[in-house]
């Protein structure tokens, strides 16, 4: 019995040793909060035609650009239809967009998004004809073509219509072929600069300190310097390739600092309170006044054998009710205390928005209030 107990304790200790401690592994990777300057996507777009639709394409009378595009396409194929009145409904004019990843070589494929430009009701079952995709400089970087994948659908009868999703937009996985590379290479970057997605002086300093602590053990020198609240400059190392250097730096973890901020969306009633938000001690009460106006018109019927006329007599009832408001003292140094104080008043999201705006006006909200 004693041996079994000792064996069980040994297994339990081994299992606990394999479980990492929370604070030691808490943190965010640098690659998740910063991007490398100069390494970015490039946006491409183009105009094309989708064919093979089941009568859900553009009406050529209403979308004249679709008819002109079809005529130009047939002219290039040696078919003259300039004087003919086209009646087809299985073609649609579309805009094609795509994001060209950095340092993508010729012959690679990327996904494209296709959206209707005319009055087509659905692109389901269509095929995009070869469409050149140009960049901001006017040069063609890719060509898109292929069958569309449309998730939405639309069904219509004589008295009812059912639409789910967006049937006039779709995607083509690997639908564009890269024909031209973007000038520049990763090894030609003049310097390695990590730009924070949420600029902050303290976060930039933490990133530089984490990189320097790692570089002291690896290269015996400091290689990072926080230039400002957005960018951290990293010196190149002679004994390390640039790709491996960026990869190892991206896996370093820090605890980013965020400013005290409260975001309020009045349309949806959403309130997001940051971790560092504090409220000075204040007393808050909130009550609602409800006024209800009810119209109950009555019909006045004249007596028999009289010459009177039937008339509608208005009847209006007005009632006012004011709910009792709770007086609560709100104030705290952390998010849990703040939320507990707001919940003690028993408020709805719209009421919390009004309370936060009033507390900000009183100067007790020690945070930035962003109203959307």
Automatic annotation (TrEMBL):
Record-level GO cellular component terms: bacterial-type flagellum basal body, distal rod, P ring; outer membrane-bounded periplasmic space
Signal sequence, renumbered to the chain: 1-26
Keywords (A to Z) from UniProt: Bacterial flagellum, Cell projection, Cilium, Flagellum, Periplasm, Signal
Gene symbol of the encoding locus: flgI_2
UniProt subcellular location: Bacterial flagellum basal body
Major localization class: other
Function: Assembles around the rod to form the L-ring and probably protects the motor/basal body from shearing forces during rotation.
Assembly and oligomerization: The basal body constitutes a major portion of the flagellar organelle and consists of four rings (L,P,S, and M) mounted on a central rod.
HAMAP family tied to this protein: FlgI
Family indicated by similarity: Belongs to the FlgI family.
One MF term in the entry's GO annotations: structural molecule activity
Pfam family, any one: FlgI
Protein name: Flagellar P-ring protein
Native source organism of the sequence: Methylobacterium symbioticum
A single GO BP: bacterial-type flagellum-dependent cell motility
